[in-house]
Automatic annotation (TrEMBL):
Annotated Gene3D superfamilies: Divalent-metal-dependent TIM barrel enzymes
GO biological process: D-glucuronate catabolic process
Similarity comment: Belongs to the mannonate dehydratase family.
Protein name listed in UniProt: Mannonate dehydratase
Enzyme class, broadest EC rank: lyase
Any Pfam family: UxuA
Length: 362
């Protein structure tokens, strides 16, 4: 297991690499390039600059999260071929700089969705939170106005002001795309890019839908064991793999996270683990909690043990954290709570390792 930390890059993240370097165990960096429009090729010079910045700070960059997929690919429009070509070129460019894993998602229109980006928890910290009732109240035909009204003054990924203008058109286009069609479009994309991924030795790792059920009437295809299995079968290659996000999949209690890790891990399909906890209050209502098992609904020990038992050699990162100790910044991506998450996950790992090796516990 290689522990990592997500960093949004110079000018996009208020947390410096110098601070990240002081997190116990010195995690590797997970990052991306943000000033290239989705669908265009990531230029070699920009990748080199990112790689150099990270390495000059004494850190490693082997994981990209995310190379986003252009909406035309998800919609299956004729223009997708150009964007797929570009995606393949981006993979080739990334490979030149030693990138080993590329995380991506296939969620229509939005990345993760929450109804509150700064819910105040009883201890005074704030967390991302999801309430189904609030989300259901959003009328897809009034999506721009509704999203603006609900966003609490923050921006969610995919909710950028300039993109809001195109939302109505996108929603119209998705009326012709059901889950079957979306899966077909993912298959088309994977059949094109996986041979390139194999050639340049980059493992593709799809991130689950967050939350793992349909919102705003849009199709969702990465939400359970069955759907992941279908995706793995689209192209039977270890390069067609998964980012197993415990907080995303775990929002549906039917998803047994340790069992999923063991199942897809045994097949060599998990390349990246997002390990975080959430507190489920009632079906489809949850807050993101600290990483500690007793603060949420996930058994983090069992999750780490599953990774240990499959002899996981991929990358792990804590996922969203709360905002604590007065920190302000990008919701879900503060320094303190995620650094605590790393210390805790590393602690679990060390304990499991020593119990097994020294005392032969199972
Ligand atoms: C949520 C986060 C996501 C993730 C993207 C991957 O759990 O990990 O924002 O980065 O969906 O493409
Ligand atoms: Mn995640």
């Amino acid at each position: 297991m290689k522990m990592t930390f997500r960093w949004f890059g110079e000018g996009y993240d208020s947390i410096s690499l110098e601070k990240i370097r002081q997190i116990p165990g010195k995690p590797g960096i997970v990052s991306a390039i943000y000033d290239v429009p989705v669908g265009e090729v990531w230029p070699v010079e920009k990748i080199r600059k990112l790689k150099d910045t990270v390495e000059n700070a004494g850190l490693e960059l082997e994981v990209i999260e995310s190379v986003n997929v252009h909406e035309d690919i998800k919609l299956g429009l004729p223009s997708r071929d150009r964007y797929i070509e570009n995606y393949m070129q981006t993979l080739r460019n990334l490979a030149k700089f030693g990138i080993k894993v590329v995380c991506y998602n296939f969620m229509p229109v939005f990345d993760w969705t929450r109804s509150d980006l700064a819910k105040v928890l009883p201890d005074g910290s704030t967390a991302l939170s999801y309430e189904e009732e609030k989300v259901q109240k959003v009328d897809p035909d009034r999506i721009v106005e509704e999203v603006e009204a609900n966003s609490n003054g923050f921006e969610l990924p995919g909710w950028e002001p300039e993109r809001l203008k195109t939302l109505k058109v996108l929603f119209e286009q998705y009326k012709n795309v059901d889950e079957e069609k979306l899966l077909e479009n993912l298959g088309y994309f994977l059949r094109a890019i996986i041979p390139v991924a194999e050639e340049v030795d980059i493992k593709m790792a799809i991130h689950p839908d967050d939350p793992p059920w349909s919102i705003f009437g849009l199709p969702r295809i990465v939400k359970s064991k069955e759907t992941l299995e279908k995706i793995m079968n689209l192209v039977d290659s270890p390069y067609n793999g998964i980012t197993l996000c415990s907080g995303s999949l775990g929002a549906n209690p039917d998803n047994d996270i340790p069992a999923l890790i063991r199942y897809f891990g045994a097949k060599g399909r998990i390349h990246f683990g997002h390990v975080r906890n959430i507190k489920i209050h009632s079906p489809r209502n949850f807050d993101e909690s600290s990483h500690l098992s007793s603060d949420g609904s996930m058994d983090m020990f069992e999750i780490m043990k599953a990774y240990y038992d499959i002899d996981f050699k991929g990358y792990i990162r804590p996922d969203h954290g709360r905002m604590i100790w007065g920190e302000i910044g990008r919701p879900g991506y503060g320094l303190y709570d995620r650094a605590l998450g790393i210390a805790y996950l590393n602690g679990l790992w060390e304990a499991i390792d020593k119990m097994k090796k020294r005392y032969s516990f199972d």
